[in-house]
Amino acid sequence: MTDVTRKDFDEVMVPCYNPMAIIPVRGEGARIWDQQDKEYVDFAGGIAVSCLGHCHPVMVEALTKQANQLWHLSNVMTNEPALRLAKKLVELSFADKVFFANSGAEANEAALKLARRYAVDEFGEQKSKIIAFNQGFHGRTFFTVTVGGQSAYSDGFGPKPGDIDHIPYNDIKAFEAAISDETCAVMMEPLQGEGGIIAPTSEFVQTVRELCDKHNALLIFDEVQTGNGRTGDFYAYQGLGVTPDILSTAKSLGGGFPVGAMLTTEKLAKHLKIGTHGSTYGGNPLACAVAEAVVSHVSQPDVLQGVKEREGLFRAELERINAKYPIFAEIRGKGLLLGAELNDEWKGRSRDVLVAAGEEGLMVLIAGASVVRFTPSLVITPEEIKQGFARFEAAIAKLYNA
């Protein structure tokens, strides 16, 4: 086997990423080890993907079993793992129908195309406007990155898809002014992730639902980051008391194996007739077998309750550390999608925290320049949490006393 280093990345990879110097080579639970066998506690979870940690036995067993049976068919035929997974997702949600894709971006692309197709079929070409929110993130395809509310990701690629309006999240007056009978869909995260871990107010999310109904607009919830137990409910909408018309899910759906899905009602699904949308790999037996195992495990009541308990441990540790080294203004989020916002004195230094934590053997994330993000395994042990925060405290102390 050829030895590779971080230097090789710069030589052979397209430079749209700037990865850390370490190269992980194995993982178990909420820990990984790099090429030098240095151990790290993982509070990042592959950006909210590794919901059962690394190499969880239920995932390894499902993948190994399926790998010895059937890998790929295409959608000329269906397969057993896809049907079993679809049935589980329908049982666990409002949905009647499922479309499988390979990623969150693809699931969101399908959601947006369905919304536009439904509007054209039922109301005509003029009902095409999409409302989305500033600092939202919905993927990197040209359609989804344009709907996402961060122009830095969508500028510079030529003319963008049209009829997309962005307004401030949680701004009821702005939303009331934006929506009309020409609105075909509203796309929102039920808890903004990349935008800084911003939760919707109850009044805001209720108003969005009510005005969507009034104007015959579809409500799309992007649950790519919040879904599959991340907030302590299987889907975040279940904790908000508001049900969307279309929901996208990915990231932790496969626990690390690429898979995404769009969930919707029978009334809407019929508008994606044969040939109107598709995916070569969507519904892949390997992906669906792993996702079925993940969903079966994560949806258990004790696992979901455990997410809420672990949230309490994370908040308590962050508050304890912040009392000694006050650099955070606010701890926010829900379940194990948490953000620690830096105060005015430390604003803009979230990457410094990430790097310092890495040096101490802890992996964290950022959500913008001033928010440190935590998206660990949903089954991370209390011992791993305690050890991770000991390393986090050491990193913060070094920064604070520098």
UniProtKB/TrEMBL annotation:
It is found in: Cytoplasm. Binds 1 pyridoxal phosphate per subunit. Its EC number is 2.6.1.11. Its cofactor is pyridoxal 5'-phosphate. Pyridoxal 5'-phosphate binds at residues 104-105, 137, 222-225, 280. It catalyses: N(2)-acetyl-L-ornithine + 2-oxoglutarate = N-acetyl-L-glutamate 5-semialdehyde + L-glutamate. This is Acetylornithine aminotransferase. Homodimer. Belongs to the class-III pyridoxal-phosphate-dependent aminotransferase family. ArgD subfamily. N(2)-acetyl-L-ornithine binds at residues 140, 279. The modification N6-(pyridoxal phosphate)lysine is found at residue 251.
